[in-house]
């Protein structure tokens, strides 16, 4: 299995390179940079290969139409390589949107000792943006073949797919508190204290998904129409269309399926 080690600078003597050209939010991967003058960001080492994000200027397309978005890239490469491409997109977008200081408006420069942009005027540091978001699978009933899982279809979903409940963490609350609040807000039920299951970087555009399991405690489903089109309790043998393997939502659902 491929192994990736993030770093700020490449080790000496590296001879193999991978350049992930970020064209808007699409990517094109090559063994050389299309233009030496375009901004690059070192990402880390992937099995002895130095990986770089190339920030392609607007209007340029070194792929001649061959670049793909991250959704399309998944399945064409390994999970590790896909995550590296996602890192490239996130860092390129961060660099594009932090060229000037948010406090005094002066230009920023890349820091030498960490992954940050430093204001040349007031010294304010800006780090890559991450938006923590919880995602949870809510179950109902005793463990076993008759246990139910709550799946919902969000207003922004493509097609009739159903998934776990998710939402962003608000200032001043813990991850567990955000799970309980989001479930209450989106479908109107009360749940138990959540248990952590895993996490996943989600570069659409800069989320960090933190996965949980929790149990129904009380209440009937009452969807918030601004967020949820429909939500239902499902048995394992009657699931609707669910997310692809790219997502932590699918991993949460698959883990529950294997329990039964």
From TrEMBL:
GO terms for cellular component: cytosol. It catalyses: a 5'-end NAD(+)-phospho-ribonucleoside in mRNA + H2O = a 5'-end phospho-adenosine-phospho-ribonucleoside in mRNA + beta-nicotinamide D-ribonucleotide + 2 H(+). Its EC number is 3.6.1.22. The keyword Hydrolase applies. The keyword DNA-binding does not apply. Coiled coil: none annotated. One of its GO terms (molecular function) is metal ion binding. CDD domains: NUDIX_NADH_pyrophosphatase_Nudt13. GO terms for biological process: NAD+ catabolic process; NADP+ catabolic process. InterPro entries: NAD-cap_RNA_hydrolase_NudC, NADH_PPase-like_N, NudC-like_C, NUDIX_hydrolase-like_dom_sf, NUDIX_hydrolase_dom, Znr_NADH_PPase. Keywords: Hydrolase, Magnesium, Metal-binding, NAD. Belongs to the Nudix hydrolase family. NudC subfamily. This is NAD(+) diphosphatase. It comes from freshwater metagenome. The lineage of its organism: unclassified sequences, metagenomes, ecological metagenomes.
């Amino acid at each position: 299995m491929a192994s990736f080690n993030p770093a700020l600078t490449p080790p000496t003597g590296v001879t193999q390179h991978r350049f992930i050209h970020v064209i808007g939010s699409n990517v094109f991967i090559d063994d050389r940079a299309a233009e030496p003058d375009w901004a690059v960001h070192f990402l880390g080492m992937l099995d002895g290969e130095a990986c770089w994000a190339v920030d392609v200027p607007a209007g340029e397309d070194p792929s001649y139409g061959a670049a793909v978005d991250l959704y399309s890239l998944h399945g064409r490469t390994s999970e590790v390589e896909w995550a590296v491409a996602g890192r490239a997109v996130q860092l390129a977008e961060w660099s594009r949107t932090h060229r000037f200081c948010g406090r005094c408006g002066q230009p920023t420069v890349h820091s030498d000792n960490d992954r940050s942009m430093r204001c040349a005027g007031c010294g304010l540091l800006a780090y890559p943006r991450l938006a923590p978001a919880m995602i949870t699978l809510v179950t109902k009933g005793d463990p076993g073949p008759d246990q139910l899982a709550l799946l919902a279809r969000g207003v922004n979903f493509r097609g009739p797919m159903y998934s776990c409940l998710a939402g962003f963490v608000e200032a001043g609350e813990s991850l567990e508190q955000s799970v309980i609040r989001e479930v209450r807000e989106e479908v109107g039920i009360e749940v138990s204290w959540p248990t952590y299951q895993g996490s996943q970087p989600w570069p659409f555009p800069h989320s960090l998904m933190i996965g949980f399991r929790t149990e129904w405690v009380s209440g009937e489903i009452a969807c918030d129409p601004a967020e949820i089109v429909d939500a239902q309790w499902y048995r394992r043998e009657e699931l609707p269309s669910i997310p692809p393997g790219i997502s932590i939502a699918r991993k949460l659902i698959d883990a529950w399926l294997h329990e039964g």
